[in-house]
Amino acid sequence: MNTKIFLGIQIITGLLLVVFGLNGFLHFLPMTPANEQMGAFAGAIYQTGYIFPLMAVVEVIAGIAFIFNKYTSLMAVLVMPFMLNAFLAHSFLDINGIAPSAFIVCSLLVIMFKNKESFSLIFKASK
């Protein structure tokens, strides 16, 4: 039963990541107007020219990996910084739109907990 719940959360997260990642290229979801601080922050990131496309590619690849249940530990580690940044930006700059990033961050934590044996060597103390 637990594995079905974990897999369901993983697949829903994967679908959300694919949708939001593809939206980074195709712009099919309407964007809610941001306040001045969030607009300046997002504008500065957009002007770098590589962060948003990189984030979209990582989201799509991680989403596909979550859907097919392959390389989930690696993909969770790769996508977590982007999603944590989105969550923190929304929580500190503009609370509108925080729900998807909050759900994805919580889901990533669940996915990482489910795959905690994959991270055991990272946290093993050396002699």
Largest sheet: none
What are the low-pLDDT stretches, counting only 5+ consecutive residues below 50? none
Number of domains: 1
Annotation, overall tally of beta strands: 0
**How much beta, percentage-wise?**
under 5%
Layout of SSEs?
Blueprint: H1 2-26, H2 36-48, H3 51-68, H4 72-92, H5 98-114
Structure characterization notes:
- The protein is mainly alpha-helical and 127 residues long.
- The chain has one domain.
- 74% of the residues lie in helices and 0% in strands.
- The chain is built from 5 helices and no strands.
- The chain has helices at residues 2-26, 36-48, 51-68, 72-92, 98-114.
- α1 (2-26) runs antiparallel to α3, α1 (2-26) crosses α5 (98-114) and α3 (51-68) packs across α4 (72-92).
- The chain starts with a helix and ends in a 13-residue tail after the last helix.
